Amino acid sequence: MDGKRWGFLVFLLLVFFGSGCFGRPERPLTVYTYSSFPPTLVEDIVRHFQEEYEVTVEFKSFSDTGPLLNQLAQEKKDPQADVVIGLDNNYLPKALALGVLEPYKPQAAGGIRSDLVFDPDFYLTPFDYGFVVFNYDSERLAQTPTSHRDLLRPEYKGKIIIENPLTSSPGQVFLLTTIALYGEEGYLDYWRALKPNLLTITSGWDEAYGIFTSGEAPLVLSYGASPVYHLIYEESERYKALVLDGGAYAQIEGVGIVKGTPQPENARRLVDYILSPEFQTLIPETQFMYPVRADLELPASFRVAARAERLFNLSPAEVDANLERWLSAWEQVMNE
Amino acid sequence: MKRRNRSTWLGQRRKRLAGQARLFPLLLLAFFFLPVLVVLGQAFLRDQAWPELLAFLRSRQFQKVLVFSTGEAFWSACFSLALALPGAYFFGRYRFPGKRLLRSVLVLPFMLPGILVVLAMVVFYGQNGVFNSWLAALFPGQNRSFTGLYGFWGIVLTHVFYNFAFCLRMLGERWERISPQLEEASATLGAGRFTTWWRVILPLLAPTIGYLGALVFLYSFLSFTVVLVLGGYLYQTFEVLIYIEYNHKLRFNQASMLAAVQMIILAAILTFQRWTQRLSDRQNGTVSPLPPWQPKKQPVGAFFFLIYLTGSFFFFFLPLLFVLIRSFKERGQPEGLWTLTNYQDLLGTGFRFAVGSDLWTVVGTSLVLALTVGLVTTILAYLLARQRRLLPWGKLDLWFQLPMGVSFLTFAFGLLRLAGRSLPPVLLIIWAQIFLAFPLVYSLLRTARREGGEDYLAAAQTLGASGWELFWTVEFPLMRKALASAFAYGVALSLGDLSAVLVLGQGKVITLSVAVYRLIGHYHFPQAVALGTLFILLAVLLFALVEQGNRRFWSAERGEGSR
Q1: CA B523 – CA B412 distance, rounded (Å)
Q2: I need a labelling partner for B352 at 20 to 30 A (CA). Which of A21, A171, B75, B94 fits?
Q3: CB-based contact (8 Å) between A282 and chain B?
């Protein structure tokens, strides 16, 4: 190769770093979400907007909620997305602090179960929720616990798998559950007592649930609707969800409009559509979560899902103000 | 007069060549390190950066993570090498049936989705695992069981599981290049077999052992999923800390700072490795055909080889086998009936529903991506290795090993900043995967190119061969084995990669590992394992084809059988 060819290569390099700076054609309505958001729901939204408004919708997914929020923060001055789906109640304060959302109270706001509305200003509108609870293997567990205190009994030694609160959202919700139940004074003692009963603490839900269904331990921290899957796809009721102490902590997922979107009208239409009965009925058997509308009938398969009338949820502001401290105290106790 | 002109022309040409020689590696380095620099720049060009760094270095957490990572990585490297050495001997010294297939299989652990490895370990070595049920059957009533999986030694065990096959293959290939004549000469001079091994063979293997040791050390040092799943809350590596800062605390500057600390530690380890490599100088082995393995003539050797094979089969294949069996069982339960429904499901709507694309598109995407990455990485690495063939392993080579020590999250984050808007996701993924694969592919080719056949090339050149002719008739046949190996590892690393596709793909690129991950996210565990099985078969087929094509080419070219 001679110098000219290298020169050409360098030129190419400049072109492709530079190309981002020049004008682009008008972009489609862009939605950011996390990578496990069900493809069926994506397709439904795309189809609906094409048919109803002749608007093209494009989804971009991120490996996790953290990177998603970070991307929004990076693009604050020049927003590349219009709507964001999947920021949950625990991420609200961070999103507000970053100032990346625009409030919009959807027409159907009144139809949402009132204790689920975690943001009274509707920067984020709840669209589905699920409970983070323990599931058990009915063929391997003789006696089922009925309270969180029961889990501390010696008979469960080495029989519980949970996810790490530092790396996984169900793990984090369980930590918050213990704080909601035993307060700042008591939760660390609870964990000290729980420690010997834990087989392992995994990085994410995938590993925990995989180890659980391999028959390695009879109790796992999962979701309230996990048994629905086994009922639908395997016609099995072997795995069951537990509601301990008569309640559960809910993970509430929200949809929000990105601040500074050039297409506010379409963005609002999307939020309204996500709350419409048409879309909400799709949620249970695709997301394995509950729809937020109180007026909908659940599919028959949901009879095996955990149903908690009482929510243990702490306020998002309280969580945000203390979470880091709670986590590091937890870490210290677990390392004792 | 004419002559002088010619010499100045040569001088100019040499100068120009030297200029290019500098430009090419620099360009490559820019591609690799620009994204990293973007992130590090942001992290350190702040007021509070240095005090924060000092505070972290003084903290107990830092010491703990450092002590644990170093210890765990050290033992993983030691055991992987110790286990691989006897096998490498048989690989390096004999021909035996099934050798080529085995060679292909040995690349597998590199591309297995992490979750499959974890499940394999749990299903086999776990509390209620196969191993424990065998112990219970063998020693009834004695209550013997293996409970070490969840802890320090479980982590080491899993890392050895990951790395030992790869050490075996690489060491075996190096051993093949040590001429048996050396051993004969040593024996003629009166040295015993052990003395010969200790004084002649081991010093020749030492650089490879050193390199592989460093590699396994690095991979284990950077380990993420394994440490988190089996270590519970007790153990953390730097990569785990970085992940938590990035993804959950959203403190990017702190994460980048941690990444920088990690890079410096790993650079120090690589420098140390380079230093040990220098202690043993370059050794040139002529390649000669291997004798077939004849069990009857070597009963003791045969006995040990069989023991070794059984042992590694037990350790390496059985865990994998038991997890794969689940894909042929109803609902993936070990006690279920045999069935193929989990495979049929992969073609059904359920797959599309969970994954967002159909099976053939996913397989096609993965193959195209992996072949592209394998090819481009091999070509780039070979060009560089060729350019530097006469030089000893130097500082620049070290820079090309450093991507192994760079936290992948840091790189991906920087890459998104740098080119996230101007490049389509597929190109970003290819870029990142080349970054991931380059160190290994390059070092393979660098060693082979340096050790192999400069004399032949010079001779061929003297005889008038040049350009493409020289490459195809002399250089390529000499390098074919190393090239095939390098290509196979490039492909394997791309196939196995999940993070680059998840972080950079924006959900638009769906590869086999992403499909496995999405199936699991939708509770389709048996189907995920079924897909994993197909994935493994596909890879073995691909690697076998590479080996086969290779052999054909060799036979046609030389008119002789392979060794």
Answers
A1: 28
A2: A171
A3: no
Task: Select from A2, A61, A206 the Cβ nearest to the Cβ of B520.
Answer: A206
In single-letter form, the type of residue at position B40 comes to L
A229 to chain B: which residues are within 8 Å by CB? 522-523
Confidence of residue B563 (pLDDT cuts 50, 70, 90): very low
Interface of A with B in 193-232 (CB under 8 A): 198-203, 206-207, 209-211, 213-217, 226, 229-230
Contact partners, residue B30, CB within 8 Å, separation at least 6: none
Q: Read off the DSSP letter of residue B291.
A: P
Specify the CATH architecture of the domain A130-249+309-335: 3-Layer(aba) Sandwich (3.40)
Instruction: Identify the CA nearest to A224 among candidates A150, A143, A312, A165.
Output: A312
Residue B298 has pLDDT above 70, yes or no: yes
Q: Which of B23, B150, B247 has the most A C-beta neighbours within 10 Å, making it the best mutation to test the interface with A?
A: B247
Nearest to B507 among A60, A209, A211 (CB): A60
* A264 vs B255 pLDDT, higher one: A264
Tokens of B311: 């042992």
**pLDDT bracket for residue B16 (50, 70, 90):** low
Is A243's pLDDT higher than 90? yes
Q: Parse chain A into domains and list their residue ranges.
A: 26-129+251-304, 130-249+309-335
Question: Does an H or E element contain B142, and which?
Answer: none
Residue A242 class from Cβ within 10 Å (0-12 exposed, 13-18 middle, 19+ buried)? buried
User: By the CB < 8 Å criterion, does A147 face chain B?
Assistant: no
Given the DSSP bridges, would you call strands A247-258 and A239-241 parallel, antiparallel or unpaired? unpaired
**Is B391 at the interface with chain A, CB within 8 A?**
no
Minimal C-alpha gap between A110 and chain B (Å):
31
Residue B5: both structure tokens together: 């002109």
Dihedrals phi, psi of A131, to nearest 5 degrees: -100, 140
Query: From the centroid of its chain, how far is CA A208?
Result: 17
CA A169 to chain centre: 7
In a domain, B28, yes or no: no
Please, what's the b/e burial string for B460-491 (b: 16 or more CB within 10 A of its CB; e: otherwise)? beeeebeeeebeeebbebbbbbbbbbbbbbbb
Interchain CB distance below 8 Å, B249 and A324: yes
**Helix or strand or coil: residue B545?**
helix
Q: Report the residue from B229, B331, B524 with minimal CB separation from A200.
A: B229
Give the residue numbers spanning the domain of B486: 345-563
Domain with residue B372: its CATH number is 1.10.3720.10
Give the DSSP per-residue string, B517-537.
Answer: HHHHHTT-HHHHHHHHHHHHH
Would you say residue B64 has pLDDT above 80?
Answer: yes
Burial class (CB in 10 A: 0-12, 13-18, 19+), B307: exposed
CA A60/CA B305 separation, integer angstroms:
53
Predicted local confidence at residue B15, as pLDDT: 57
Interface-testing mutation among B56, B65, B228, B525, with chain A (most A C-beta atoms within 10 A): B228
Q: What is the dihedral of CA B504, B508, B512, B513, to 10 degrees?
A: 30
Contacts of A334 in chain B (CB under 8 A): 233-234
Query: Going by CATH, does the domain composed of A26-129+251-304 fall within 3.40.50.300?
Result: no
Say if CB B432 and CB B415 are below 8 A apart: yes
